[in-house]
Amino acid sequence: MPGKSPTQRIDDLTARVRDLEAALDTYQKVTDLALKTIEGQVSDRAKVEDELRNKVVELAVKNAALEERARGQKESWEERARTLEKNADRGWQLWLAALRFGFGLISLLVTAALQLKK
After folding, report:
1. What average pLDDT score do residues 111-116 get?
2. Is 99 among the domain residues?
3. Coiled-coil ranges per the record (predicted)?
4. Calpha distance 56→51 (Å, rounded)
5. Looking at the domain assignment, is residue 67 inside a domain?
6. Is residue 102 in a domain?
7. Secondary structure (3-state) at 14
């Protein structure tokens, strides 16, 4: 088999170019589809990321409000505790005064009874 004639070589090369063009066309379609898929995924992830950022901001605002509310409640409870302590001290002082008065009265009655006995 002698070498191919120039016409056959041209035909072979033309066929090869057609095959390569078809392969390139297929590859381009596949890569375009893959690119669109990846772009869609990136877009979806960007949306999710934005939603998560918004949620973080929303939760940070709620957390700040809850901390402020807790601080207010703590101050309120501390004030109530101080008021209860004052009332408890006053109540205790009233009991002590009543006991002193009672012991003073008993002492006075005992003294009067001893004076009458003499």
Report:
1. 88
2. no
3. 10-87
4. 9
5. yes
6. no
7. helix
